[in-house]
Design a protein that fits this description.
Elements lengths: L11 E5 L6 H16 L8 H8 L10 E5 L2 E11 L6 E9 L7 H16 L4 E7 L3 H9 L3 E11 L15 E4 L6 H14 L11 H8 L4 E10 L2 E11 L9 E9 L8 H15 L4 E7 L6 H8 L2 E12 L1
Parallel strand pairs: 4-5, 10-11
Antiparallel strand pairs: 1-2, 2-3, 3-4, 5-12, 6-11, 6-12, 7-8, 8-9, 9-10
């Protein structure tokens, strides 16, 4: 009886991203993977998104890796090191593989390469996240030594669910700000963000450059509103809608950030800011308002959003591995 050697599985090759060559693979892999888990709610990545990130302050402290099988891109991962923390901390962003290859050696080799790179950059821990329906990704993280440290809820509001018995502060003055064209507004926003979020999970102060970059994405229209008591800015809200909203199947606007300084909380200021942002989002044609909140938020924000009428849609799970 003749014996034939078993066919070898194609080798998985990990290589660095090449600008000007790999942008299309980045977009296609990201959209295939996250579209698989988010379905009709998914807003596809496009060229503007990639260019925005490449021009952001986070690009210089990141490295994109591609996985290839027989020369075909099948996975991508983007580790980022935050050198503003002491000690430096790593993050896993944009981790995507072809859905049919999830659970194979492709995603494990990508994660291993990303962690190795972060160690070389001096990171002492790495943080990653997964939507609660990403069972294979969660299994991979747990097998690779990541521990669940925090759940975040993604909450949504539709027009019929907004409560009609809300009590916004009537003394507060709201002003639409323009941080991208007014340096003083940018400084106010940066200061309010850093002060309002100082007690929150994973906080570190944002630089002016980071605050500006957060708003510079040309594919989105943003609303920034400051709340004043007398002449003092005491709170802010940032809302955003895609400029492609009419073309999207799931028409969503997002509350990106909202904060009120600690001495002024529970006075109806957050309610006034939220109503301003919600009404603006609906005026743009969105059918759903969405936000993300730490389930252990120290300000009680989850209960506040529920009182407005928001309901949990799913959870994002945050994992950490010490290096």
């Amino acid at each position: 009886m003749r014996c034939f050697p078993l066919a070898r599985e194609p080798e998985v090759r990990i290589r660095e991203f090449e600008e000007g060559r790999d942008e299309r693979a980045w977009i296609e892999l990201f959209n295939a993977y996250f579209g698989h888990y988010y379905g009709r709610e998914f807003e596809p990545l496009d060229e503007d998104d990639v260019e925005w990130f490449k021009n952001s302050p986070w690009w210089r402290d990141s490295q994109v890796f591609l996985a290839e099988v027989s020369g075909e891109p099948v996975g991508i991962i983007r580790p980022v090191v935050d050198r503003q923390r002491e000690p430096p901390k790593g993050y896993i962003w944009g981790f995507a593989v072809k859905p049919e290859l999830e659970g194979s050696e492709v995603d494990r080799k990508l994660l291993t390469k990303a962690v190795e790179w972060l160690v070389l950059q001096g990171a002492k821990a790495v943080q990653a996240n997964a939507r609660d329906n990403m069972k294979a990704r969660i299994k991979l993280y747990e097998e690779e030594g990541f521990k669940l440290i925090r759940p975040f809820s993604v909450m949504r509001l539709r027009p019929p669910d907004l409560r009609d018995d809300l009590r916004p502060n009537r003394e507060v003055r709201l002003r639409r700000a323009n941080p991208l064209n007014n340096e003083e507004d940018l400084k106010i926003l940066n200061r309010l963000e850093n002060e309002a979020f100082s007690e929150h999970f994973d906080f570190r102060p944002s630089s002016l450059e980071e605050t500006r970059a957060f708003l510079e994405h040309e594919g989105y229209e943003d609303l920034v509103v400051f709340a004043y008591l007398a002449s003092k800015p005491v709170g802010f809200v940032i809302a955003s809608v895609s400029k492609n909203l009419p073309e999207l199947e799931f028409k969503r606007g997002i509350i990106m950030d909202i904060g009120v300084l600690k001495p002024y909380r529970r006075k109806g200021i957050g309610t006034a800011l939220m109503l301003e942002a919600i009404n603006w989002i609906w005026s743009k044609g969105a059918e759903v308002v969405e936000l993300s909140v730490d389930d252990d938020n120290p300000t009680g924000a989850t209960a506040f959003y529920a009182r407005l009428g928001f309901k949990r849609a799913f959870r994002t799970l945050v994992y950490l591995r010490e290096l």
